[in-house]
Design brief:
Elements: H1 24-31, E1 40-47, E2 53-62, H2 71-80, E3 85-91, H3 101-116, E4 120-127, E5 132-134
Parallel strand pairs: 3-4
Antiparallel strand pairs: 1-2, 1-3, 4-5
Protein backbone atom coordinates (compact mmCIF):
# COMPACT_ATOMS: atom_id res chain seq x y z
CA UNK A 1 0.00 0.00 0.00
CA UNK A 2 1.38 3.43 -0.96
CA UNK A 3 0.64 6.63 0.87
CA UNK A 4 1.01 10.15 -0.36
CA UNK A 5 1.89 12.83 2.11
CA UNK A 6 1.17 16.43 1.29
CA UNK A 7 3.50 18.94 2.81
CA UNK A 8 2.51 22.56 3.04
CA UNK A 9 5.14 25.22 2.98
CA UNK A 10 4.49 28.23 5.16
CA UNK A 11 6.36 31.47 4.83
CA UNK A 12 7.20 33.12 8.11
CA UNK A 13 7.28 36.80 7.46
CA UNK A 14 9.49 39.39 9.01
CA UNK A 15 7.78 42.55 10.22
CA UNK A 16 7.09 44.87 7.29
CA UNK A 17 8.54 47.78 9.23
CA UNK A 18 9.11 49.01 12.73
CA UNK A 19 5.48 50.06 12.71
CA UNK A 20 3.72 49.13 15.92
CA UNK A 21 0.03 49.40 16.65
CA UNK A 22 0.33 50.74 20.16
CA UNK A 23 -3.02 52.49 20.53
CA UNK A 24 -6.40 52.89 18.83
CA UNK A 25 -5.36 56.43 17.90
CA UNK A 26 -2.32 55.05 16.07
CA UNK A 27 -4.47 52.54 14.17
CA UNK A 28 -6.92 55.32 13.28
CA UNK A 29 -4.06 57.48 12.03
CA UNK A 30 -2.61 54.66 9.91
CA UNK A 31 -5.84 53.29 8.40
CA UNK A 32 -7.98 56.41 8.17
CA UNK A 33 -7.24 57.11 4.51
CA UNK A 34 -7.63 53.45 3.44
CA UNK A 35 -11.37 53.34 4.05
CA UNK A 36 -13.86 54.16 1.32
CA UNK A 37 -16.36 56.57 2.93
CA UNK A 38 -19.21 55.24 0.77
CA UNK A 39 -18.82 51.50 1.46
CA UNK A 40 -18.46 49.48 4.62
CA UNK A 41 -15.07 47.76 4.66
CA UNK A 42 -13.22 45.54 7.11
CA UNK A 43 -9.45 45.46 7.50
CA UNK A 44 -7.37 42.90 9.33
CA UNK A 45 -4.05 43.96 10.87
CA UNK A 46 -1.80 41.02 11.69
CA UNK A 47 1.02 41.45 14.19
CA UNK A 48 3.72 39.45 15.89
CA UNK A 49 4.22 39.18 19.66
CA UNK A 50 5.81 42.66 19.74
CA UNK A 51 2.77 44.16 17.97
CA UNK A 52 4.89 44.87 14.90
CA UNK A 53 2.93 44.90 11.65
CA UNK A 54 3.22 41.75 9.58
CA UNK A 55 0.39 42.31 7.12
CA UNK A 56 -2.69 44.40 6.43
CA UNK A 57 -5.60 42.93 4.48
CA UNK A 58 -8.88 44.26 3.19
CA UNK A 59 -11.07 41.30 4.16
CA UNK A 60 -14.54 42.46 3.15
CA UNK A 61 -16.23 45.24 1.26
CA UNK A 62 -19.99 45.61 1.06
CA UNK A 63 -22.17 47.68 -1.19
CA UNK A 64 -25.14 48.45 0.98
CA UNK A 65 -25.71 47.12 4.47
CA UNK A 66 -23.39 45.42 6.84
CA UNK A 67 -20.19 43.45 6.49
CA UNK A 68 -20.54 39.69 6.93
CA UNK A 69 -17.50 38.10 8.54
CA UNK A 70 -16.51 34.47 8.53
CA UNK A 71 -14.04 33.97 11.42
CA UNK A 72 -12.28 31.15 9.60
CA UNK A 73 -11.23 33.58 6.83
CA UNK A 74 -9.60 35.80 9.42
CA UNK A 75 -7.94 33.01 11.42
CA UNK A 76 -6.61 31.33 8.27
CA UNK A 77 -4.87 34.54 7.17
CA UNK A 78 -3.32 35.06 10.58
CA UNK A 79 -2.02 31.50 10.88
CA UNK A 80 -0.55 31.58 7.36
CA UNK A 81 1.54 34.64 8.27
CA UNK A 82 2.66 33.22 11.62
CA UNK A 83 0.97 36.12 13.37
CA UNK A 84 -0.13 35.94 16.97
CA UNK A 85 -2.07 39.15 17.56
CA UNK A 86 -4.57 40.96 15.41
CA UNK A 87 -6.82 43.97 15.21
CA UNK A 88 -9.92 44.25 13.09
CA UNK A 89 -11.16 47.61 11.92
CA UNK A 90 -14.20 48.54 9.91
CA UNK A 91 -15.96 51.73 8.99
CA UNK A 92 -19.49 53.01 9.39
CA UNK A 93 -20.29 55.22 6.38
CA UNK A 94 -23.29 56.55 8.33
CA UNK A 95 -20.89 58.65 10.42
CA UNK A 96 -21.87 57.05 13.75
CA UNK A 97 -18.99 55.02 15.23
CA UNK A 98 -21.18 53.35 17.89
CA UNK A 99 -21.12 49.54 17.57
CA UNK A 100 -24.24 47.72 16.48
CA UNK A 101 -25.45 44.56 18.23
CA UNK A 102 -23.91 42.59 15.35
CA UNK A 103 -20.56 44.34 15.91
CA UNK A 104 -20.62 43.40 19.60
CA UNK A 105 -21.59 39.79 18.85
CA UNK A 106 -18.95 39.44 16.12
CA UNK A 107 -16.24 40.85 18.37
CA UNK A 108 -17.09 38.44 21.17
CA UNK A 109 -17.17 35.51 18.72
CA UNK A 110 -13.79 36.44 17.20
CA UNK A 111 -12.17 36.96 20.60
CA UNK A 112 -13.38 33.62 21.97
CA UNK A 113 -12.48 31.75 18.78
CA UNK A 114 -9.03 33.30 18.66
CA UNK A 115 -8.30 32.30 22.25
CA UNK A 116 -9.14 28.68 21.43
CA UNK A 117 -6.39 28.52 18.81
CA UNK A 118 -3.77 30.59 20.61
CA UNK A 119 -4.38 33.94 18.93
CA UNK A 120 -5.29 37.25 20.53
CA UNK A 121 -7.70 39.89 19.32
CA UNK A 122 -6.21 43.15 20.59
CA UNK A 123 -8.98 45.49 19.46
CA UNK A 124 -11.91 46.04 17.15
CA UNK A 125 -12.04 49.62 15.95
CA UNK A 126 -14.96 51.22 14.15
CA UNK A 127 -14.08 54.20 11.96
CA UNK A 128 -15.96 57.17 10.62
CA UNK A 129 -14.39 59.98 8.60
CA UNK A 130 -13.22 61.86 11.67
CA UNK A 131 -13.83 59.67 14.70
CA UNK A 132 -13.55 56.09 15.95
CA UNK A 133 -14.79 53.67 18.57
CA UNK A 134 -12.40 51.19 20.23
CA UNK A 135 -13.78 48.08 21.95
CA UNK A 136 -10.61 47.82 24.03
CA UNK A 137 -10.77 51.45 25.18
CA UNK A 138 -14.36 50.92 26.31
CA UNK A 139 -13.47 47.69 28.18
CA UNK A 140 -15.67 45.66 25.84
CA UNK A 141 -12.93 43.23 24.87
Amino acid sequence: MKYKIKVREYIFREPTSDLQFTSPEKVFEILRDDFNPLQEELYLLIMNLKNQALEKHLIYRSGIGSVIINPSDIFRRILMTAGSHFIIAHNHPSGDPAPSEEDVHMTRKLSEGAALIGLRLLDHIIFTNDNFFSFKSKDML
